[in-house]
Amino acid sequence: MHWKAILGAVTVCALQVPAAAEDIAPSPAEAEVPYAAETARAEKLGLQMYLYDQAAWLATDSFLPDMGKLPQKQLRGYVVVPGQGDRLEAVFYGEVDGELTEFARYDVDKGKVVSGGILAKADRVALSPLAKRLADARAVAIDEVIAKSYGFCSDQQPNTLTLPPDENNIVSVYVMTPPVTNDSYPLGGHYRVDVDAQGKAIHSRRFLNSCFEVQYRNAKDENGKPMEPTALVVTHLLDPYPTEIHAFASRYLPVELMVVTVDNKAMWSVVQGDIAYAGQLSGLDEAED
Question: What pLDDT shows up at residue 5?
Fold first, then answer.
């Protein structure tokens, strides 16, 4: 399939890197990289999201075998908070006499759970102020997503990813469509809700206008023949540069993610969270994502 036809599509699927080099106008080495500050922030957020997501998954794997020992009706959820050094702590909490209370805690370091478990009843204390703020922000974000009728792209329960307060004391909560196969990853159905120190949702956004999954295994070409993509090419309309969702998702992809930002006709390479400007495109038709 010729890649110009691909870029004119409403959404694009798993494809090989474009062979027609003349379709990309390389940026001169001395030229200023566009949106350097914005893409650096997207990279930083994407990495933070990935680390918190991994901590949640690893801790959940440890928590599930013991979950039956806890009063199920009291369980409410989990949050991930900064620990000592680079460690992260996943806290599973419930409600006891109207108060959010720790039921289990796991320390995650360098991609594995290094300590933690179900807490004895005597050790089940109220959530720390930070953990409670994150838990409250998560609840506010879910209400906001429901109020705005944001849709998801599978019938699976959405994932939530809550980051600690940023430099402006804002908590960002990501409510995301989860992956449901080992062959693809959803880029659509993800939302961010920003919650201020007073617990109010002050901003929310979607990252794609529709559902879309990038197929990186068991892909097929336009003739239905199996193909192994060397890169995934997607268009993006809502921003003139790749977002933290692209940076985050790329860490779960085994191949390069190429993002075409349609409004400014720019091509970007996103690999394992790193965003690089690849040049300008010519002959790009209008597209929707």
Answer: 30
Domain count, the chain: 3
Whether residue 254 sits in one domain with residue 221? yes
Q: How far apart are CA 234 and CA 150, in angstroms?
A: 21
Strands 213-215 vs 184-186: parallel, antiparallel or unpaired: antiparallel
Q: Which of 190, 215, 240 is the last residue of a domain?
A: 215
pTM: 0.85
Do 89 and 110 have their domain in common?
Answer: yes
Which residue, 215, 230, 250, sits at the end of a domain?
215
Q: Give the mean pLDDT of the chain.
A: 86
30-44, 167-181, 215-229: the lowest-pLDDT one = 215-229
- Domain span at residue 122? 55-127
List Cβ neighbours of 256 (8 Å cut-off, separation of 6 or more). Answer: 17, 230, 231, 232, 269, 270, 271
Task: Give exposure, 103-141, as e/b (b: 16+ Cβ within 10 Å).
Answer: bbbbbbbeeebeebebbeeeebeebeeebebbbbbbebb
